[in-house]
Every structure is written in structure tokens, then in C-alpha cells.
Amino acid sequence: MKIVAICGAGIGTSAILKVSAERALQKLGLEADVTATDVASLAQDSEEAQIILTTRDHVKDIGRTFADVIVVENILDQEELTTKLEQALG
């Protein structure tokens, strides 16, 4: 499974989402390739993604995709991300 976390520059919010997703997956007993990227690289990086993690600010930048898009309201809320990943994967 591939999960892509995105933000404007690919180094701030997406990096936090990447680490949080890896923790959530570990808690759920699941494995995935989680990458962080910027909006400009999203089309290339998300070709094989099953899930795209983003904040509300970047939903409009995603465009057409077959991936499930998870909008994270609070990037520091580990429980929110864990719950949303569990729902998407369950």
C-alpha cells in the first residue's frame, strides 16, 4: 500500500503527516510505504497511491485521483489521523 502526504512545499506539514501516518499504521498493525511530497510533485508521486493525506488548504490541488483523500483537520492530533486511516482501510 502507498500513502502520500502533501503540503505546499513538501517539507513541513507533509513531513508531520508522514510521521503521524507511520505511527498510526504501526498502532493499527499495518504496513505501507508513506511518502511526503509537495503539491507540484503530487501527480507523479501519487500515481500508485491508495491514500492521499492533506489539509483542507490543499484539497483543491489534488485534482482527479483514484486514491482515497483524507483531510486532516489537526495535523498534531494522532488520534484523528489514526481513526481516519482505520476507517479508510477498514
Compose a concise summary of this entry:
With 90 residues, this protein is α/β, with parallel strands linked by helices. Helix content is 40%, strand content 22%.
- Let me know the number of strands: 4
Q: Output the number of helix runs.
A: 4
| Main sheet strand line-up | 2-1-3-4
Major sheet: 4 strands, parallel
Classified in CATH, the superfamily is Response regulator
Between the first and last Cα atoms, what is the distance in angstroms? 13 Å
Mean pLDDT equals: 91
Helix/strand structural class: alpha/beta
Examine the secondary-structure arrangement and name the CATH architecture: 3-Layer(aba) Sandwich
Q: Rounded to an integer, what's the Rg over CA atoms? A: 11 Å
- Broad shape: globular
Fraction of residues in helix: 40-55%
Top CATH class: Alpha Beta
Low-confidence residue ranges: none
Task: Describe the protein.
With 90 residues, the protein is an alpha/beta fold. Helices cover 40% and strands 22% of the residues. The chain has a 4-stranded parallel beta sheet, covered by helices on one side. Strand 1, helix 1 and strand 2 (33-38) form a beta-alpha-beta unit. Helix 1 crosses helix 4 (78-89). The two termini are 13 Å apart. The model has no long low-confidence stretch (mean pLDDT 91).
